[in-house]
């Protein structure tokens, strides 16, 4: 029983050794054939073949030209990896910039919409005050008390519009300050 186990183990060791020897011979043959192709076609060893060859390089006897050829192939592979990494970083940066710009535009559009709504409300109030002024003037001779009440209502309404204009000009619009100042001047001209 002991001899059978020993023989079985010896066969497994021999098979393992011969598998390694076969791999070393394949790697050596691959280097030789790729080096011959380099002379004709100026092609380096592809990265997937380098992965196969690298574990066996210490067990293969190479001349200086073959060592230089392998080193050149490794540099080309590394350069290609760096270029791929740089491209991925560049794509990520471009996507990030696009996303940030999209977020900026979204906030800016919200602020413009808010500014438009506030301006519209102020203009409605000013129109209401002006209509009260017109009514006051129309009723000045018929009913002076009503005319005074309408005039007071118009002045109160204009005062409210003025406060809204002030609150609008003091509101911080982070993304549209220049547009806000132009519109604020327009609203001030309406109010005055």
List the helices and strands and how they pair.
Layout: H1 2-41, H2 47-53, H3 64-138, H4 144-170, H5 177-191
Helix pairs in contact: 3-4, 3-5, 4-5
Strand count: 0
Number of helices: 5
SSE run: HHHHH
Percent in strands: under 5%
Distance between the termini: 114 Å
Average pLDDT taken over every residue: 78
List segments where confidence is low: pLDDT < 50 over at least 5 consecutive residues.
none
**Residues in helix, %:** over 70%
Largest sheet: none
Given helix and strand content, the structural type is mainly alpha
What is the CA-based Rg, rounded? 43 Å
Envelope shape: rod-shaped
Descriptive key words:
5 helices, 192 residues
Task: Offer a quick outline of the entry.
This protein is an all-alpha fold. The chain contains five helices and no strands.
Describe the 3D structure:
By secondary structure, this protein is mostly helical. The chain is 85% helix and 0% strand. The longest helix has 75 residues, at 64-138. The termini are far apart.
């Amino acid at each position: 029983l002991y001899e059978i186990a020993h023989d079985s183990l010896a066969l497994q060791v021999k098979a393992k050794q011969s598998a390694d020897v076969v791999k070393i011979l394949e790697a050596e043959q691959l280097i030789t054939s790729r080096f011959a192709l380099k002379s004709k076609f100026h092609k380096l060893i592809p990265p997937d073949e380098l992965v196969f060859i690298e574990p066996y390089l210490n067990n293969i006897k190479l001349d200086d030209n073959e060592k230089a050829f392998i080193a050149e192939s490794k540099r080309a592979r590394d350069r290609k990896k760096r270029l791929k990494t740089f491209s991925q970083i560049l794509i990520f940066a471009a996507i990030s910039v696009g996303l940030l710009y999209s977020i900026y535009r979204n906030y800016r559009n919200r602020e413009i919409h808010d500014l438009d709504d506030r301006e519209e409300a102020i203009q409605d109030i000013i129109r209401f005050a002006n209509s009260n002024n017109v009514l006051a003037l129309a009723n000045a001779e018929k009913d002076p008390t009503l005319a005074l009440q309408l005039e007071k209502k118009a002045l109160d309404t204009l005062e409210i519009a003025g406060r809204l204009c002030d609150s609008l000009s003091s509101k911080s619009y982070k993304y549209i300050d220049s547009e806000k100042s132009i519109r604020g001047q327009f609203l001030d001209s309406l109010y005055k």
